[in-house]
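[Help] Beginner question about ligand-bound structures

Sorry if this is basic. My supervisor gave me a protein sequence and a SMILES string for adenosine-5'-triphosphate and asked me to "get the holo structure". I don't really know what that means in practice or what format the answer should be in. Inputs are pasted below exactly as I got them.
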Amino acid sequence: MQDVLRRKLWAVGGGKGGVGKSVFTSLLASRLAGLGARVVLVDADLGGANLHILFGIRYPLYTLGDFITRQVENLEDVLLPTPIENLRLLCGADDILGIANPKFAQKIRLLGHLRRLSADIILLDLGAGTSYTTMDFFLYAGGKIVVMTPQVTSIQNAYGFIKSCLQRKMVRTFATDPDALELINGAVGSQKNEKTEFMGELKKAFRQLGPEQSAKLAGCFEEMKASIVVNMVRDKKEQDVGRIVQEVSRKYLDLSLECMGFINYDPQLDRSINNMVEFLKKSGGQSMGMEIYDIAAKVLRRSRPDNPADQDAAIATARKSLQQAYAAVRI
Ligand SMILES: Nc1ncnc2c1ncn2[C@@H]1O[C@H](COP(=O)(O)OP(=O)(O)OP(=O)(O)O)[C@@H](O)[C@H]1O
Ligand SMILES: [Mg+2]
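Answer (accepted):
No worries, everyone starts somewhere. Holo just means with the ligand present. The predicted complex, written as structure tokens, is below.
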């Protein structure tokens, strides 16, 4: 049962603020909705919520805060419709009553309600930084996307975010195993300079602990296989900077990541950020590139592997109509 939610739950994170996590998640949500998936977009930036502004909503009627503080009992009642068909929005909360750091029981209640939502895909737009709540949402989601820009600071933060999440995953997995914890903290928790053989050494040391621990550790790495998206790409060279994070993660964390695609920088979007719906309706976001379709297609395939033929047909049709729209614009 838990796997059903995890499969349809995608978290979009990345250490740095302002790299376009919310913009990308909104674009992805509208593309997925356009492909026929019932999508719920959740502003999980608890304490810094602003996703509703991208949708032109100044004062949301309900927010996640109403659910967390039990003003509203059913999560379904907090969802707001958007002008985009198949796409509903769960607005975030301001940091009142400590909502930015919900208690464990509150998080469990939220996940329980997310599971029951009538949606094919649930996208979590996470806040910047590496708060425990942000990392826990990221770790819980079956699909994990890290958004970065070609800037050096963003590249560093993306790697730092991935490393912190992996570390938290391992620490939580072995919370009641002092021998394992000691090894983990020795390898990743210290201030030592990073060495290529860190994770290799850790894995070797775990083999000494026993096959069960070794398998659990391997599971942590398996679950951290995130995908990278590069946003605000301005030229061809910048399309590939995700490879840097991919390479460094492989080298220092023994972790394989996927480069999922890129999104072009679009000055028009920058200008119409107070209402992305209008932007999407007017230009369809075409200037941002076809890649968002490929990314949406990957998300759809992984979330609903039960009927791949239907999805492929829907994706092919949507792609064709977009290509026609492109051709029309060029004429
Ligand atoms: N592809 C793009 N083209 C042009 N401008 C963009 C693009 N993506 C994002 N922006 C600009 O960057 C700004 C920040 O984007 P966004 O709010 O999505 O970042 P964020 O990572 O969610 O930030 P935070 O961590 O504060 O939540 C937007 O307001 C927009 O002006
Ligand atoms: Mg944001």
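A couple of things worth pointing out: Residues 308-330 form the longest helix (23 residues). The domain at 2-330 is CATH 3.40.50.300 (Rossmann fold). Feel free to follow up in the thread.
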